[in-house]
């Protein structure tokens, strides 16, 4: 899938193989995001007949079968109720490659989060383009929000240079292959610490992000400025309740909610200023 990973079901000789996947909403998910009534799954049947069943509390609530083939299959399940936990059962006579699983609600805007940690790990150019294009089309992707870079600030100038190359590679790949998708690059938040060079690298990363977005014809939102600029992370940490962690790097849950609110407000303000909301 988008991570470039795949789960493979390999049956014993001359017999069917059944596999399970249990999906549970996160404990800390908001009430609006904690339930789902729509499930989707991508897989390669590899020539064999495949049966996919959806179960809740051990009871089968939906099932679909296909005759197999060698093309990527997307099965959708619209459920009559909303659930917090489901079991997905796969039964295949031959090897089955599962590419991805989707859980969403039929109401509201669907948001798919790809969490990446550590030094710049950019997924798009490392994916199988055929699979990525299929998923984007079936998910009806209209906007991508890219937020990378803060961990690079604790590295060195070489890390920033590598980050610039990898970010630009992603942006130009998206522009070339998905020209109708709107992309927003979210700039780094403020960060403070004992390293006197952190702010210098933060400013360089901000320049890299803004220039990369502008060169590709995309939007840039400056989270650093939205927070209040230099040392704003310290002020956020000293608020009651705290908006940032004592490490002066990570936002608290309240801080993340505030930054998200600021971003959405800016996005919708600009959106409404365009003719016909386009």
What can you see in these coordinates?
It contains six helices and eleven strands. Helix content is about 30%, strand content about 25%. The protein has about 280 residues and is α+β, with helices and mostly antiparallel strands. It is globular, with a radius of gyration of 22 Å.
Order of helices and strands: EEEEEEEEHEHEHEHHH
Shape: globular
Q: What fraction of residues sit in β-strands?
A: 25-35%
The residue fraction in helices comes out at 25-40%
Poorly predicted tracts of residues: none
The CA-CA distance between the termini, in Å, is: 30 Å
**Major beta sheet, specifics?**
4 strands, antiparallel
What is the tally of helical segments?
Answer: 6
Largest beta sheet: strand ordering = 1-8-3-6
Class by SSE composition = alpha+beta
Number of strands: 11
Overall pLDDT, averaged?
85
Fold topology:
Elements: E1 7-9, E2 17-24, E3 36-44, E4 50-56, E5 59-66, E6 73-83, E7 85-92, E8 96-104, H1 129-139, E9 143-147, H2 157-177, E10 182-186, H3 198-216, E11 219-221, H4 223-227, H5 232-237, H6 253-273
Parallel strand pairs: 9-10, 10-11
Antiparallel strand pairs: 1-8, 2-7, 3-6, 3-8, 4-5, 4-7
Helix pairs in contact: 2-3
